[in-house]
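COURSE: Structural Biology Practicum
ASSIGNMENT: Worksheet 4, Part C
STUDENT ID: 0417
INSTRUCTIONS: Below are two proteins. For each, the amino acid sequence is given first, followed by its structure token string. Answer the questions at the end about the second protein only.

PROTEIN I
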Amino acid sequence: MTNNQPGDKLNPKIQQQLLNHLVVGRDLTVGNINQQNITQIFQLGTPDQPELMRLFVEFVKVITDAGYTPEIHKVPPLNPTASLDAAVITPQSSTPTTSTFEFEVVTVNAQGRETKRSRKQAQSFVEILGDTVKLEMVSIPDGKFTMGAPQEESESREDERPRHIVTVKSFFMGRYPITQAQWRAIASLPKIKHDLHPDPSRFKGDNRPVERVSWYDAEEFCDRLSNQTGRIYRLPSEAEWEYACRARTATPFHFGATITTNLANFCQQDQSMNKVERKQTTDVGSFPANAFGLYEMHGNVCEWCADNRHEDYQDAPSDCSVWVINGNSEYRILRGGSWDCFPTFCRCTYRSFENPQVKDKEFGFRVVCCI
């Protein structure tokens, strides 16, 4: 950063909004900071000082990249006339140690018959959340992919288009949806913004995914986890989620053209088939992983993403950042389908949405971490 001090010229209202967003830790990532995003997030008018705006954008990038989390410290004021307290993260001093794990990947044909089974490897690290509770984070490699569904994909919708190329930087994602044991461990930590129910789920089980959690609950979980570990945890962007789900496949499901009840926990639609009616969540890891080593990306629980709702992909980001610009903030995105969803709602590209305050027995989440 230059010797210029853009913060010295920013009014206290903007300072407070900046600090609030850094405390929340979800709206800003280094990948989505640009002048357009900053203008909307901080409710700035058209900048009459382009150089000041450029410095402000760079300033936000530096702060976000530094790795802030909600530990309460005194922050030197950005403006000499303002004195603000804010939550600042003490970043981890080193990259976590990863290890290799093996898993099986299954491919099926359009009739759901298995055509291939292979062994793969991936890298992961582990966060210790309690005496017997751990969180496994899988390394998702960088790359490019085509986001959205082609016109010819059966039962695809217009909100899954236009298809567009997205460039993805590597990140870590939870190997499984957050479990009830993991939820309890983090819910017992000090509150950041609001209270968390220690046992919200309808279907009980330590290794079952937590459900009946709102988008705000998931955000609070991420904030507390960040505070506890010194790393920045957040909900995935919609683009990150789809990239991770696809795992370099181009079919409606990462298994292939269809899924069966041997591959995922969902509600079977075809009445002529031998139905497996689970009618509830199942333990995480009960079904085969995708090629990145992630489990239950189809079915079990719908997973909250960070993005605001947009009616389609017109003007969507090409860099996998969280998409908030010109979106409807009254709704947030859910992906993956649930135990009570028909197969089409579990496709890689299917987009659902709900008010961020809603808690439902189909709604859960998984976390990502950028290091």
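PROTEIN II
(use this one for the questions)
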Amino acid sequence: MALIPCYECEKEISDKAPACPHCGAPKEGRPPQIEEAEILESVAVVDEPEPITQETVSAPSTEPEPVATKDEGFNPVVAIAVGGLVFQIVRSLGINLGALTVVPLIMPVVLLVRYGKKQSPQAYAGIIGALVVMFGIAVAAGPGSQRDARWAHTPVNVRSGRSTSDPIVTGLERGERVEVDSLVDGWFRVFRNGQPIGYSASSVLNEGPPSSEASIPEIEDGNAPLTAPSRPTAMFEFVNLDTEKNLDATSPVVGNVRVRIEVKNTGSCAASLNFVVQFLNAGGFVVRDWFFDAGTMAMGDSKTLSEVVKMPRAEFDEVTRVQTADSRFRCVR
């Protein structure tokens, strides 16, 4: 026999007693504790979440993982087309990069192939279309749209830049016609057959072809007879041309060339004269030129002009001979 608490008064009674001797509560009215405990246990099992353990955390997932794919690069054919268009735009704008001329062509191709990502066909078409439009604008607005004709009256050097210190890339023969544009600091950009070939000083390129005589202006005479006498002729002769080269005593990087020219008016009128003296290298190309003005001289007069021309040592060392060029003279009253 065991003692259990009464469900009503909670005093101890025998488990065999039909009723509580203290309060009289019948045994049959006791609530089903065992059954209730089982129900609560089953509910707890259903509602209680599964505890997280180390095994649960480290257990591999059964779902398939996405496979990583490598990004595709920029289309190399389109990259080459982009480089070509950028190169043409730079040329059309008259930008001279010297030895770095190929940079606008190579750099876009390298950057796009190395770092660019694959684009849609529409994006490729948009890029090419935009560059084509920019190329058209550059051609229309660039200096090449306003070229002028010029002639070389003597052999002329064409250099890689706008300075006598830049290397000579080619030359022009006497009488050769070229096109020029982009006059900057006294230097033209020179074109031959539509293609840029370099730069030459504007002073050695003339607006008309060379000729042996200067044009003579008409003589105004309201009372001239029907058969007018022959017009006066302006003509000069360079009787003597002496030169002497020596280094500047005050600076070893400067050279002096003394030029002494004797000119004579051999025409049939008093006339004015100005001309250019050109300093040539062994190849016959101009290293430096210098302007002389003889002023007005009467018929038969002679005049000696003398001047010392200073130039950088690099030019000085190139000079092998001197000649006159681009003489301009006319009768004066």
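ANSWER KEY EXCERPT:
Q1: Residues 42-47, 212-229 have pLDDT under 50 and may be disordered.
Q2: The domain at 236-331 is CATH 2.60.40.10 (Immunoglobulin-like).
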